[in-house]
Each structure stands twice: as structure tokens, then as C-alpha cells.
Amino acid sequence: MTNSLNRREFLTLSSSLMLLTIPVAANPPRPLDQPATSQKRWGLLIDTSKCSSGCDACVNACHIENGVTGNNRPASDAQWIRKVTVKDKQTQKVTSLPLMCQHCENPPCVDVCPTTASFKRADGIVLVDKHLCIGCRYCMMACPYKARSFIHEKVENQKPHAPRGMGTVESCNLCVKRVDEGKLPACVEACKNAGHSAILFGDLKDPNSEIFQKLQKVSSTALRADMGLNPGVRYENL
């Protein structure tokens, strides 16, 4: 046996190594000529024990990705995702967690919308059609998570994939464009890059997905489970 390789062997080995280093998409991209399918349901599992109270990487990434800007007025500025602190009244345990649209299976925002601007895709992602939104804000009142924002002022420098407009309502869209491209939502990617990996994204219906398998093993909580909305966002260690 010899340690040397001929040219053909070298090229074959090099090609194999290159294949190993090609980044794999988080999920297969959806063909543009095919609609979203109910065979999938996208969701998040957030491990609050890994979420640092002083970290807002997920918030910053979300707002950068979707062109969400404000005027330093927390009470009225749009927030697609925000960090909140909750306290257990019995144990006094304080927990920090990110809160966004929960992408409910039975979304009350869709039920009350008079123009069908609020709608749910077949794969569970809840969205707002800005062309149909009249700014009545019924959806904001109906959402038990206070996950929607109203745009009070003119918006400039919008992102083509995330249209925004004065007088309309908006909220987390689970980075739908990235998901359709087979990528992770911006908040998930940022949390991982920050070294926390507190947010897991995937197909809640796929038995082979990491999120499905983990939900079978750990105890998770749905916010306002009493309302029967079956949100697509679950929290671990809450």
C-alpha cells in the first residue's frame, strides 16, 4: 500500500470532501410554482433556560431582516418580537423569554378581520396582506399575546420581501421568505450565533424533524393554553 494518490483518486477524494462542506438548508426550499401545503406546520420551541435576560440578539435580527424601525417610543413603535419577563406568583421564579406572533392553529386575529387581510397559510404561518388591511385594529384587540403592532407613521427604506405601510397592522411572519428558501428564521439564526441556541425551528408534523422529536421528550408549555388556540410556538422550562 502507498500513501500517494494518483490524479484521478485525488480528484475523487476532493469532490467528496467538498460535498461534505456544502451547507445544508434548514429545510427543503419550497418550489415557487407550488403553494404552501398543509402537510407541514412550521413552529418554534423556545428553551427559556437558555434565554439570557440581557440578550436581544433575536429582536435585533428580526428587525434588521424585516426593516422594522422605530422612533425610540416603546409604547407605539412596531415590535415584531420583544423580550418579556414573567414571574411565577407561587414560586417567584423569574423567566426571560422572546414573545412574538404565536402562529395559532385557530388564530383569533383571522376570525375578527373584516377584510380577510389577516390569514393563515396552509403550513400554519399567520400573515397580514397589507393591500387588504384597513387599519381597523380588530386583530390587535383579539390577539391575547399583544403580538401585533400598528404603523402610525410613514415608512421608508422598506425591504421588498416585507412590505410595510402607514395605517396597517403587522407582526412576526416567521421570516416566511427565508422559510420558503429553506433557511432558518432570522431570530433562530441569531440566537444560535450568539451562543445560546434557545430557539428551535422546524416542521411540527414531521416525525423526523428535530423539533417534533424533542417535543416528544420534553415538557413544553403553550401560552394561554386555556383559549384552545394551539399555537405553533411552544416554551420549554417555563
- For this structure, the CATH topology is Alpha-Beta Plaits
Low-confidence stretches: 10-24
Q: What share of the residues lie within helices?
A: 10-25%
Shape by Cα distribution: globular
Name of the CATH first level: Alpha Beta
Strand order of the largest sheet: 8-1-10-9
* Main sheet specs: 4 strands, mixed
> Element order, helices and strands?
HEHEEHEEHEEHHEHEE
Please count the helical segments. Answer: 7
Mean pLDDT: 89
Terminal residue distance: 59 Å
Instruction: Please give the radius of gyration in angstroms.
Output: 21 Å
Brief digest:
With 238 residues, the protein is α+β, with helices and mostly antiparallel strands.
Explained architecture:
The chain is α+β, with helices and mostly antiparallel strands. It has one domain (7-236): 2-Layer Sandwich (Alpha-Beta Plaits). Helix content is 24%, strand content 17%. It has seven helices and ten strands. The strands form four sheets. Strands 8-1-10-9 form a four-stranded mixed β-sheet. It has a two-stranded antiparallel sheet with strand order 2-3. Strands 4-5 form a two-stranded antiparallel ribbon. Helix 2 packs across helix 6 (186-193). The radius of gyration is 21 Å and the shape is globular. The model is unreliable at 10-24 (pLDDT under 50).
